From TrEMBL:
Gene3D superfamilies: Dihydrodipicolinate Reductase, domain 2, NAD(P)-binding Rossmann-like Domain. Keywords: Oxidoreductase. Residues 133-247 form the GFO/IDH/MocA-like oxidoreductase domain. This is Gfo/Idh/MocA family oxidoreductase. InterPro entries: Gfo/Idh/MocA-like_OxRdtase_N, Gfo/Idh/MocA_domain, GFO_IDH_MocA-like_dom, NAD(P)-bd_dom_sf. SUPFAM superfamilies: Glyceraldehyde-3-phosphate dehydrogenase-like, C-terminal domain, NAD(P)-binding Rossmann-fold domains. Belongs to the Gfo/Idh/MocA family.
């Protein structure tokens, strides 16, 4: 397979910490270019990662005819406009989540990708991790019976007023940043689309962003997803799936370290102390590398990628409904 030639838009932390190292070693990927609004910053990162081209603007990278695909980790409010710009320039786009903050914006991206004949995917790297893949296999096999509920707790502490996650005007806040993972988890493990949501939020009085959000999502089968996400609380990641014949617990369900052999714990519910629990130990995996490789294969094969535009539309619809519910204080339907 001819390698897909990649460029990365911005020197954002997620890129430096996760995606740039992944792209350097991912099969079928050739990391060629990095762009920043500051030329010297782009050059520094290019030297650090051995990247051939460093650009002082996003436009210059998008104009490079040797770049096939770009990774867009810009702040949330730039996901849609820059992705549209990249598609117009003939690039495939892997965009950080949330790809869009509304269903209408997500549909705009989907239509642009179709018109350009290019691939777009939302960067939910978790769907590529062996623990998520294996868990869904077990659920489909009926390992814990009919699933009825998923509980998610996801939190961290960030009170930096300059951080993009604490700026309401550019799409900051807990729901957009990490609540989207809970929504994706429900859709992934229930294998269906949500029909209605309710939510309560506590907003930071200075930032205006939601720092504590608890939501409930109802699915057509009657199953429920319950989640709490927080941006000014202790670092925590927990996820439990409940079924008629047992439950399933995850190790670091969202940011599992690449050198950690994740444990998928299956409990038949026969003992409150979990004496009969079974543990599947999964091989260590870099979910960012797996994501880059899968998207590159989709580009070469011209097949739909995981977490493609239609999936992004559905995730955006649920998040948009949650935002409406926060304002109305009532259950809100999820648009189809």
């Amino acid at each position: 397979m001819k390698p897909v030639r990649w460029g990365v838009l911005s020197t954002a932390g997620i890129g430096i910490k996760a995606m740039l190292p992944a792209l350097r070693v991912a099969a079928g990927c050739d990391l060629r270019a990095i762009a920043s609004r500051q030329q010297d910053r782009a050059e520094d990162v290019a030297r650090q990662f051995g990247i051939e081209h460093a650009y002082g603007s996003y436009d210059d990278l998008l104009a490079d005819p040797e770049i096939d695909a770009v990774y867009n980790p810009l702040p949330n409010h730039l996901h849609v406009p820059v992705t549209l710009q990249a598609l117009k320039a003939g690039k495939h786009v892997l965009c950080e989540k949330p790809l869009a903050m509304t269903q209408a914006e997500a549909r705009q991206v989907a239509e642009a990708a179709l018109a350009a004949g290019r691939q777009v995917a939302e960067a939910f790297m978790v769907c590529h991790h062996p623990q998520w893949v294996r868990a869904r296999e077990l659920l489909r096999e009926g390992r814990i019976g009919k699933t009825s509920a998923i509980q998610v707790l996801f939190s961290y502490s960030n009170t930096d007023p300059g951080n993009v996650r604490n700026r309401a005007d550019i799409g900051g806040g807990g729901l957009y940043d990490i609540g989207c993972y809970a929504v994706r988890a429900g859709r992934w493990f229930f294998d269906s689309e949500p029909e209605a949501v309710c939510v309560v939020m506590d907003r930071d009085p200075a930032f205006g962003t939601d720092r504590l959000t608890t939501g409930a999502i109802r699915f057509p089968s009657g199953a429920h997803l319950g989640f709490t996400v927080a941006t000014q609380s202790a670092l925590t990641q927990q996820m439990t799936i409940l079924g008629a014949g047992g439950n399933m617990l995850f190790d670091a369900p969202f940011n599992c370290p690449s050198d950690h052999a994740a444990r998928l714990i299956i409990d038949d519910g026969s003992n409150l102390l979990g004496k009969d629990r079974q543990i599947e130990v999964l091989p260590p995996a870099d979910q960012y590398r797996l994501q880059a490789e899968e998207f590159s294969r989709a580009i070469v094969s011209d097949e739909a990628p995981l977490n493609g535009p239609e999936d992004a539309i559905r995730n955006a619809s649920a998040i948009e409904a949650l935002m409406r519910a926060a304002a109305s204080g009532q259950w809100e339907p999820v648009a189809t």
